[in-house]
Design a protein that fits this description.
mainly alpha, 127 residues
């Protein structure tokens, strides 16, 4: 009984280490994604602002209201598309802690009793 309890605790310890490792990897991946996303948003916003000012200055004497309206509409449409894409990616993300869940399922199957099946004896070999 002592050996079985020791083995069970070792299995539990291993699974918890796997869970902690996966959580740490996911945290690092998420933080890196957020940091690069923030840099991209900042630089993209600056580029769009300078582009809008440049185009508006080009058409200042002829159609400045039309250009400002079209730029505003295009930025708003881009914003909506970006949010829809982000929503789609959040829904399509994989299940978190796949390896831990798979190992726990394998442990559960290994520890569960095997159901007894009625097996008929093999037929005698031909003479």
């Amino acid at each position: 009984m002592q050996g079985m309890l020791s083995t069970l605790l070792a299995i539990l310890h291993t699974r918890l280490e796997l869970l902690a490792t996966e959580a740490e990897e996911e945290k690092r991946r998420l933080l890196a994604t957020m940091a690069w996303g923030a840099v991209g948003i900042l630089l993209g916003s600056m580029a769009l602002a300078f582009m809008a000012v440049f185009i508006t200055v080009l058409f200042w004497s002829t159609h400045r209201e039309l250009v400002l309206g079209l730029l505003t509409l295009s930025f708003a449409a881009g914003c909506v598309l970006a949010f829809l894409q982000a929503k789609r990616q959040l829904r399509a993300s994989g299940q978190w802690l796949n390896a831990t869940l798979a190992e726990l399922q394998a442990d559960r199957q290994a520890l569960s009793p095997v159901p007894a099946t009625s097996v008929s004896p093999p037929p005698p070999p031909p003479l």
